[in-house]
């Protein structure tokens, strides 16, 4: 079963917004391609994500606590 490109874009966007929502609830900042984003930036973020795949990375402190989540561009759709 092949996923339509537009459907894949929406799934990627929904996933990222969901991750930002969970991170904000925990007090963890989120960045996409090195730029910090919050839920109030979702319209801007949708434009940034256009036709791209992202990989999620966790950044921890010396005690193993997650202190930031970053999404890095890994390819194009």
List the helices and strands and how they pair.
Elements: H1 5-25, E1 30-32, E2 35-37, H2 42-49, E3 52-60, E4 66-76
Parallel strand pairs: 1-4
Antiparallel strand pairs: 1-2, 3-4
Walkthrough of the structure:
With 77 residues, the chain is α+β, with helices and mostly antiparallel strands. The chain has helices spanning 5-25, 42-49; strands at 30-32, 35-37, 52-60, 66-76. It has a four-stranded mixed beta sheet, covered by helices on one side. Helix 1 (5-25) crosses helix 2. The longest helix is centred in the first third of the chain and has 21 residues, at 5-25. It starts with a helix and ends with a strand. The relative contact order is 0.22. The mean pLDDT is 85.
Brief sketch in words of this structure:
It contains 2 helices and 4 strands. By secondary structure, the protein is an alpha+beta fold.
């Amino acid at each position: 079963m092949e996923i339509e490109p537009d459907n894949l874009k929406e799934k990627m966007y929904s996933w990222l917004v969901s991750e930002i929502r969970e991170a904000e609830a925990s007090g963890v900042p989120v960045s996409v391609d090195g730029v910090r984003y919050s839920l109030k930036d979702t319209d801007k973020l949708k434009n940034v994500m256009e036709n791209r795949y992202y990989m999620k990375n966790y950044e921890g402190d010396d005690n193993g606590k997650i202190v930031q989540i970053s999404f890095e561009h890994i390819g194009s759709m």
